[in-house]
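Quick one: structure tokens for this chain, please?
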Amino acid sequence: MSLNSNRLDAFLSHLGVERNLSPVTIQSYQEDLRHFIAWLDENCIDLKDLQPEKLDEFLTLTAGQEEYSPTSVARHFSSLRGFLKYMQNQGEYDYSTESMLSTPKLGHYLPQYLTREEIDSVFESAANGKNPLRDTALIELMYSGGLRISEALGIKLSQIDLENEWLMPIGKGNKQRLVPLGSKAKENLRAWIEEGRPLTHPTTDNIILNAHGKPMSRMGAWKIVQLHTMHLSKQVSPHTFRHSFATHCLEAGMDLRVLQELLGHADISTTQIYTHVDKDFIKQEHRSFHPREMGGK
């Protein structure tokens, strides 16, 4: 066991003995922090030697994970803040992380969303790539359908109704929901399913397959995303497309509760956090709709 792992054990013991937290809460801390400890060990970094710029690198990496929503990122940061503060008190870490891990700072690490023009450029890249039908279909599921990467890779042929234009993904908690299928998405998914997919000699009924007819891995999907977004100046992950879907729907005026249903969120508060709207757009909307801004003075 590494020295970093021993430090984590000491912190978890502190949570149980001195703070009297429940085993479930302690397990949650452990799950959040094991990624940080593994990252330290993989990079041969002793906690005492961790520089703020390297910590920033880890935080950016964490926020970019495809399954991490802003609420998940906030929870991870909270656990890490508690751990590092404890290590400071024990003389095991020398740098203050209050400013880097404060709540307002979270916005810096949340996944970026792509503009409509950037989305168009990604579709254009996919259309001109080596596997245009498959790559376009994958991006349609993530952006046009707003699916999580696990949902996009796991969705079956039986969960798409091209005639009636519905997707029926199974999300968290094994809950199935209905997501409308737009005309462009329908056209591109049909092209892959009917023309490209059979050429892989499928061994499964998953819609998205690798070149050998087997379910595509997350790493495979990540590589496709990187390939078609390398021309952008933003750090993009599969999760970015879901975030972009949510942001664009909200900007276009979609009701928040409808968006909640489409995203498969059990609690609307998650949707409110997850779907930020940029400040310029808020100002624009205010000028367009507020009576005193519309000449009603």
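The domain at 3-90 is CATH 1.10.150.130 (DNA polymerase; domain 1).
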